[in-house]
## 1
Amino acid sequence: MPGIVIGVVFLPLLFPDGRPPSRRWWPLGLAGALAMAVPTVVLAVRTWPLRGPGLVPQNGEDPELVTTVSGPPS
């Protein structure tokens, strides 16, 4: 998610000189930062129980949240 937001929002917003075109664009930068941070925090909180031994499948299947985030095994 952060890579998509950086590519879609911040690259055009800050190109070519690294600053927004004017002060009016500041809310777009804030919205982009929130769009990057909120899903990252939600995903981190939801996957907190799946750390260490919780990531190792006991019955040969991955936990539901792991398959939801990363997709089915290829």
Note: Helices lie at 2-14, 26-46, 64-70.
## 2
Amino acid sequence: MSRRRTFGPKKKLALLLSAATVAGGGAFVMATTSNASPPAATTKSAADSTVCQGLATALGNNERFIAGQRANPDAQSEARIANREAVIAQIKVQQEASGCTVGESAQGSQPAQPEQPAPSQPAAGGQAGQDGQAGGGAAAGEQVCNGSTVTLSGEAGAPAASSNQFPAGTRLKVTNLDNDKSTTVEVTSVSGSCVLLNNAAFEQVREPGKFLIRRALIEKVG
């Protein structure tokens, strides 16, 4: 005949407390796990992504343009600045959507063009480029802005460009050497780089998902 094992009142109380402790510890672990904050989303800088670099360059170019207008204002400066501030706001939206650092600016990312001494007298029919540079006097069909990268201004409208070297009315041909696509556009305004394409012109030569043309051939054609 088997004997059933029995526990005294004190032993039963000890066992109940032990079970409650284990259960409580498990509940604490589960609560800690469920309340843990999700890992923060990481953002990419211009150094991490070609897309982010292109957007940072576009933002920097527009900031440089605004700074130039404020340093040397004219009757149209206020309207130009308001337009570029709207462009900067749109670029920041694109930065956020692309996972880039919002507001990151790469003002120095455009390679500086070598300064050339201004001629004592301009050639007949010629016109000096912006900021005293001689880009505006380049012959038609001549390659210009060697080594420059090309990005977009964020401005709408028909295909066009802005430049700090060529006066309004100059026609430039921009070729993306990475996909052999070209566009010929007219300079319509001033910017902080050799060639800055508006949205429509940039769409004609861009690679999908990229906001910067690293290998560009730029020619003055008229």
Note: Residues 50-109+129-220 form a domain with the Barwin-like endoglucanases fold (CATH 2.40.40.10).
## 3
Amino acid sequence: MKPVEIYTTPICGFCVAAKRLLNKKGVEFAEYDVMMSPDKRTEMAQRSNGGRTVPQIFIDGKPIGGCDELFELEGDDLLDRMLA
């Protein structure tokens, strides 16, 4: 399975929903809390081409967007292929 990274904050409902979907699918992921680590917020913005909202999700180093995009990939049956 390709590596997954997710930039989050502890008070973000969309972050919780995205992590819940990944956990339901058995996907391991690295999580970076941008609230507690401001340097991670800067890193997130650079890696996501300016994305400033959380979550920002990366699969195999490629930005896929946030929670809505993750659920859209799942609904279109593309997420499993991206993770394989």
Note: The chain is about 45% helix and 20% strand.
